[in-house]
């Protein structure tokens, strides 16, 4: 029997009515002759609530207990979905991550899936079970503790199951009807894409488009999973939504495929560090050891043997970065005059594989921002993206202006 993976995100299972609607979609796929693996998220808002409880009790918490707590939202929806399907006379059973078991690394709160044994679930399909409902976002470490895969991790659970079971497709049901040229909440001109290349989706996701977790796109690309994003709120045909696929499958595309943004950025500047060989290592090794995810880096012009070093990191890691730098200063590894944190910044990025063969895309982006009076604080580029750090208050304006200037509302 072909296996199909269907993932329902938080808003798609937010109420009993929505779980029933999702279960009906699953019933349609079962009626077509598929064995279905359903991956569920926690009901909308549940994970945030659980994270809030953890932080209230213990801001610098034990990550193992964080995982034990925040993974629990998915357990509820998995059981509710299995029960709903049983009520519809569809043979279904729920699994928590450890029961499969979804084996992960021990990196609590951002674990990576290492292995998903298929025998257990396949045996049940062999006995007539039609739907395996699996709690997304969670797994088990080699030490036998519950782990979670990072926020948005149910997408990754879904793709990993699709790869392990060689599924015909992995359908990600969410509250939008596909991947858009930018977040449709920021501009009504955002256009739904029928197809997007893995590389572009990977960049968009890692630069802030939370419609798919970055790791899920990485896995889909590596294991050639047919990945589709579609709405759980509308009746869907077989070619609905957006297909994330290999570049070769896309006939025509714009130079810029989409605009992504991230609000949760901070710009940190170390004022007056010694400009000597090894200074970058002396700064960034302790930051990395402290678990700070440094993104952009700029070293300013040096004057009289001293320079300023600027880097960006997620806002919730600012405290950790400050502590790491103060410790490095106290131990004499580095010396700086001051560490200035600017937490009112946002990152805006344009992404497109067409940039490989088109010159002048970055220049056009900078001109658009100049015309809007938006000051650029830091720039980074790669082969298929340009990112800028700007004042957060201009973020929406910048996204809309870039969307207009690159005519993303029109097809190529
Ligand atoms: P789920 O709970 O189903 O996992 P998410 O909230 O994680 O859903 O992701 C869906 C949201 O992603 C949309 O509501 C939309 O606001 C946001 N989003 C950001 N960028 C994009 C984009 N380029 N295309 C579509 N949605 C996007
Ligand atoms: N419930 C988790 C979260 O909110 C995982 C997910 O929804 O993908 O991050
Ligand atoms: Mg999500």
Automatic annotation (TrEMBL):
- Keywords assigned: Amino-acid biosynthesis, ATP-binding, Kinase, Lysine biosynthesis, Nucleotide-binding, Transferase
Q: Where does ATP bind?
A: 7-10, 174-175, 180, 185, 210-211
Domain (ACT) ranges: 268-353
Q: What are the GO cellular component annotations?
A: cytosol
Give the UniProt record's GO annotations in the biological process aspect: homoserine biosynthetic process; lysine biosynthetic process via diaminopimelate; threonine biosynthetic process
**Documented EC number(s):** 2.7.2.4
Q: Which domain of life is it from?
A: Bacteria
A single Gene Ontology molecular function, please?
aspartate kinase activity
SUPFAM superfamilies membership: ACT-like, Carbamate kinase-like
Q: What InterPro entries does the record point to? A: AceGlu_kinase-like_sf, ACT-like_dom_sf, ACT_Aspartokinase, ACT_dom, AKii-LysC-BS, Asp/Glu/Uridylate_kinase, Asp_kin_monofn, Asp_kinase
Q: Reaction(s) catalyzed by this protein? A: L-aspartate + ATP = 4-phospho-L-aspartate + ADP
Binding sites annotated in the UniProt record for substrate:
47, 74
Name its pathway. Answer: Amino-acid biosynthesis; L-threonine biosynthesis; L-threonine from L-aspartate: step 1/5; Amino-acid biosynthesis; L-lysine biosynthesis via DAP pathway; (S)-tetrahydrodipicolinate from L-aspartate: step 1/4; Amino-acid biosynthesis; L-methionine biosynthesis via de novo pathway; L-homoserine from L-aspartate: step 1/3
Which family does the UniProt entry place this protein in? Belongs to the aspartokinase family.
Listed name of the protein: Aspartokinase
Which source organism?
Octadecabacter arcticus 238
